[in-house]
Amino acid sequence: MRWSPRPPFIRSVVLDRSRLRHSALRYAEHGWDVTPGAYLAGDRFDCARPGCPTTGCHPALERWEEAATCDTAKVADWWRRAPHAVLLPTGRAFDVLEVPAHLGLRVLGAARLHASVLGPGRGQVRGPVAVTPTGRWMFLVRPGDPLRPELDDSLDVVRHGAGSWIPAPPTRLPEGLVRWSVSPEETRWRLPDAYAVQGMLVDAVGAAARGAQLPRQTSTLRRAA
Question: How many domains does the chain have?
Answer without folding.
Answer: 2
